[in-house]
Amino acid sequence: MIPLRDDRPTRTFAFVTVALILLNTIVFVHELSLRNPDRVEAFFATFSLTPAHLTQSPSPDSYLTVFTSMFLHGGWMHIIGNMLYLWIFGRNVEDCIGHSKFIIFYLLCGVAAAVAQVLIAPNSTVPMIGASGAISGVLGAYLLLFPRARVLVLFPIWIFWRVFYVPALLLLVFWFGMQLLSGLAVLSMDVNGGVAFWAHVGGFVAGMLLIPIFKKRGVRLFQ
Asked: Do 24 and 71 form a contact (C-beta atoms < 8 A)?
């Protein structure tokens, strides 16, 4: 299911969500501008997060990649999917947290996602990139804030496409379940590489744990 929008209007303009989308897009455009494969490889080697670099020979630069890796993407579908989820779910979460605290919340979820993946695969030499860990935290927060919201989704059935609303609770629990099951499957197969499912799981759980602390006073959970 591809989410298109939710039915919850925001009370304030989501400045930080828009800024994050723009920043990720600018970085992606820079990636495209490199063109030369050697320059692209060097760029990702410098700014992506490699678990083994943190667990075996950590340096200040390797710790910094926990943050820089959140703004890198490996292709068009990667960034479009991440930014779509951030736009749909990030605006209301930012509205409930506040602009400045949302930046901290977002980065903390990204850090938690990175830690979860590094703990699962501490010796991996495969670079980690993408905003999905931090965005997973946004999804976890949204689940606790707006489980009764409805999300318009696009659902492909063979050659047909259907558009309909589903409860946010159903969509997000299903999404989290898929990440968890995929993570367990990859773990059992001892696959080194691919999608960082445990970063998604870690970010989602972090978002659920942090949102009661970060939400504005007077904002209720389970709206």
From this structure: yes
Give me the count of residues in the chain.
223
CB-based contact 176:201 (threshold 8 Å): yes
What does the alpha-carbon distance between residue 10 and residue 2 come to, in Å, rounded to a whole number?
21
Give the separation between CA 124 and CA 165, rounded to whole angstroms.
40
From the list 77, 218, 210, the residue with the least C-alpha distance to 142 is 210
Please give the chain's pLDDT, 223 residues, in tens: 899 999 999 999 999 999 999 999 999 999 999 988 899 999 999 999 999 999 988 888 899 999 999 999 999 999 999 999 999 999 999 999 999 999 999 999 999 999 999 999 898 888 999 999 999 999 999 999 999 999 999 988 777 888 999 999 999 999 999 999 999 988 777 655 668 899 999 999 999 999 999 999 999 999 8
Residues 132 and 101 sit within 8 Å (Cβ to Cβ):
no
Q: Tell me, what amino acid is at 186?
A: V
The pTM of the whole model exceeds 0.85 = yes
Tokens for 174?
Answer: 């299903």
Q: How many CA atoms lie within 13 A of 203 on its CB side?
A: 29
* Pair of tokens at residue 10: 């925001």
C-alpha radius of gyration, the chain, whole number: 17
